[in-house]
Write a structure and sequence with these properties.
The protein is mostly helical and about 200 residues long. It has a domain of about 100 residues. Helix content is about 70%, strand content about 0%. The protein has 6 helices and no strands. Helix 4 runs antiparallel to helix 5.
Length: about 200
Amino acid sequence: MRYAILCFAALAGPLLLSSTGMPQDPPIPQTEQATKAPSLDEQYYRKQYELAKHQYDSAVEENQQIASLNSKLTLLRLRQQMEYAAKLLSLASEEEADAQRLRVASMELVENDARLAKQQLAWAVEVSAELPGAFAPDRMRELELAAELAELALERAKQADYFDDPLPHLQWQLNRLRSDVLQLQVLMERTESGA
């Protein structure tokens, strides 16, 4: 059960965006100097956080060496992965996760998803204005639809009883993952076929 709570709460890890739309530093989990040894979960999530942080820091360093090697979107996604790992570590370090905190964290996730989708669309519009044709019309439509879908998810999450039962929220997360995996498969097939 603790694992299910950790997974559910981790899905609620927020992506912290500044007013400029760039990521802010996530809170860094600290190890408490306690008499008891860290649990295996805590050790695992600490290592997962270290890996995610390393990947993000490496991408930032690559961009310092070669400008725009990694896109803003890639950096945001790597930052979100790091924050997700930090949230898991934070929850693994606590004795017990309470339902109210999970609701707040879940709401933050939905709000940040909506912000990220809007930011992706805004960046695409900005790039298209500077470089006409940089985005195909179907890609622009896809970004518009993603922003609209994220906004609807936010409206749905604001309903008073939405988080009373975590199963619909988990199902929503699974549906998002399926969609993301499908998109990755399509991109891989296009890349492999040279399309």
